[in-house]
Amino acid sequence: MEIFRELVPGLKRVLLPYDASNTYAVAQLPSYRDAARRLGLTLVDRPLRTEEEAQAMLARVRKGDVDGILAPRFLSLNIPGFVLDTAQKQGLPTMFHGIFFAERGGLASYSAADNQLGRQAARLVDKILKGAKPGDLPVEQPTTFELVVNLKTAKSLGLSIPPSALLRASRVIE
After folding, report:
1. Which ranges constitute the DSSP H helices of 66-158?
2. What pTM value is reported for the model?
């Protein structure tokens, strides 16, 4: 959320649609709410339970209702897909958790580097195949994160991305 605020001057109201039936999505809500409060943002979180409900709610979103949309990490109910569609139709900036959506017109994404996660998983599987007990292996967190900024989308939204954000970006889509 901090990066999203840096990319979008004037960001005040952020929509966060999420799958209310996904335990992990619900468990992350306090973190999102706390981050928004610390950053002086208003988080407009919307629980959704079906794909139809997600599509209908996002189709009603208009520029002016919110200043941007934070797409959830989880792909359930096709919420990120509907977010991308709504954002493109309404001219709203978006922040995603995966590069896939930034490559398809989302403003930006910030997430753990997929290639690093794959190597990490392979290293753990190798240990297990060599006899280590999974319960004995320490939990590992990702250590490499990627910021991807879509300058084509920024331009279409009339946004000027700060040079400091572009310098931190792992990838810039022009």
Report:
1. 79-90, 99-103, 114-129, 151-157
2. 0.86
